[in-house]
Amino acid sequence: MSEPPGAAVSLAPAPPAEETPEPSSAPRTARLAEAERPGDDTAPRPLAAQRVLPLRRPGRWIATAIVLVLVAQIVHGLVTNPFYQWDRFQYWFLRPTILDGLFITLEVTAYSAVLGLLGGILIALGRLSRSPVLRVVSWTYTWLFRSVPLIVVLLFLYNFSALYRTLSIGVPFGPAFFTFDESRLATDIVVAVVGLSLNEAAYASEVVRSGILAVDQGQHEAASALGLPKRYQFRKIVFPQALRSITPNYVNLLINLIKSTSLVFYVSLLDLFGSAQSMGSTYPGDIVPLLLVATIWYLILTSAVSVVQFYVERYFSRGATRTLPPTPLQKLRTGLRDLRARARREAAI
Amino acid sequence: MTTETAESTGTTEDTTEVRPAAVEVHDVHKWYGAHRVLDGVELTVRPGEVTVILGPSGSGKSTLLRVINHLEKPEVGYVSVNGELIGVRRHGEGRETGVLPAKRRGRLKELSERAILGQRSRIGFVFQNFNLFPHLTALDNVAAAPVATGKLTKPEAQELARQLLGRVGLADKAGAYPRQLSGGQQQRVAIARALALRPGVILFDEPTSALDPELVGEVLAVIKDLATSGTTLIIVTHEIGFAREVADQVVFLDEGRIVEQGPPTEVLDHPKHERTRDFLSKVL
């Protein structure tokens, strides 16, 4: 019976056949001395010098291999299939028409994201208000705009000037001080931003509300026991803590918003998708590469948002975790350091 | 205790005492729905005195503290701190009363939220679960309130915060976030935070109940230091030994009523009431 290296760990009584029966309670020094005897291969190495053999996981290796093959197939198909026309993709990728569309997408997204979040905060505060009227009105708003498809909202707004010819600021039901001509005010981009913001605010309000509710009741109590002014309580105590749980959910909304801007094509605004689409109808042979151009740009935008998300979340986790999560660069550095240390250890053994 | 004190507000049986009571709780009743939590509580705390409130869980101890700084509104009765009514004012008080119809004059009127917050900033409160602001450092936790209430500028508040953290023995933890501190350290920061507003009275709601036994001592030492420095304290606690050491007055509360009150030697060592004796035999 050959002695496996791990046998010294075993607490079972040694079989009598063995030459040097060694009770596990034997002094450590004796064992160490024995292990260092030259030429004695069968003697177990001292525990301290041993590395635990990692458990083999063949299933994991097989699954990894299968996935790698599938990924390789997909990549190969993308590159070699002439249907994708990568040369045309290259031609279109940085064309001014596409970049103009990209700019519109960014512009509409930025305005709607800010207005949507501000609106969402107001509606969330309304939902959490003690006034039943404010509660019902904000609930109704959320209910309405979550129920109506965005495209319907946009088309409604597009035809808004037919419903209300002028907008005015003044005494409710009384005289007006300022009057705007609807058709001049409601440019395509205004219609798009207003529509997207209305929709975004409905969803953002629920995200903000859940964030505020997630803040411990004790925080509200401590803030009011200290006599902090109401506004200060919200701005400096409750909201910063709520942002921690609001951020991931709001980024979800934001990414959805970036993609929803493709609907503004229907209110005759040429965003990224719109310009790809209109170029596609002018050059029908290039539809697939144009769709690819739009896809890649959307991927880039989403990736940029995800990077920002990481750092924003890291910022808001101050105090919530004992140590901040490492940045990718820090992760890489510690990973390399660990690898080097491991290599050194193995060389030493 | 006696009904005569109700008529002459601000004075106690002790007629030689001229200063108003630091805290006066008069005939306070409080319900949570159909459940009666406080049932006609009368309590007077003189300035500089330490009052310890004892009682089984659910006896209304915490509610009584929360009524004093108006985190809870009493249904009946009133509370005054240093002669000032909490959460309410007499109608017409502090302004021209001539225009007010006579029958409405002197009636109690609810204070604005702003005014109540102002009153709370003069009453310190220390919570069982510390309730430090987790996104602020220890220093900012202490410095926040004086700045927010406009009492001090930011540098002044930070200087004061540093002093107070030193006083509770945490000068080296100014930059730490609450989660990086032990429970005892967090509670000491919370006490420093309450002190930052220079309150006339500090209320402690079971300040050591959420702590590991070995951390209780450091928090009690800080409270004892406050007690000897002449701050008016009202402490809800289960630490009987501590009560005997620092209390000028011990109040035993059961089912929303004060069963017994007096100096610790009386209430703790020679309780008159059956209920008090029963409770003390269980916690000692």
UniProtKB/TrEMBL annotation, chain A:
Subcellular location: Cell membrane
Molecular function terms, GO-annotated: transmembrane transporter activity
Keyword Repeat: no
Bias-annotated ranges (Basic and acidic residues): 31-43
Pfam families: BPD_transp_1
Disordered as annotated region, ranges: 1-45
GO cellular-component term (any): ATP-binding cassette (ABC) transporter complex
Topological relation to the membrane, as annotated: Multi-pass membrane protein
GO biological process, one term: amino acid transport
Tree of life domain: Bacteria
Keywords tagged on the record: Amino-acid transport, Cell membrane, Membrane, Transmembrane, Transmembrane helix, Transport
Domain ABC transmembrane type-1: start-end pairs: 102-309
Protein family per UniProt: Belongs to the binding-protein-dependent transport system permease family.
Protein name per UniProt: Amino acid ABC transporter permease
Organism per entry: Streptomyces piniterrae
Automatic annotation (TrEMBL), chain B:
Membrane topology qualifier: Peripheral membrane protein
Pfam family, one: ABC_tran
Protein keywords: ATP-binding, Cell membrane, Membrane, Nucleotide-binding, Transport
Keyword rRNA processing: no
Gene Ontology cellular component annotations, sorted alphabetically: plasma membrane
Principal cellular location given in the protein's record: membrane
Catalyses which reaction(s): a polar amino acid(out) + ATP + H2O = a polar amino acid(in) + ADP + phosphate + H(+)
Domain ABC transporter, chain residue ranges per copy: 23-280
Name assigned to this protein: ABC-type polar-amino-acid transporter
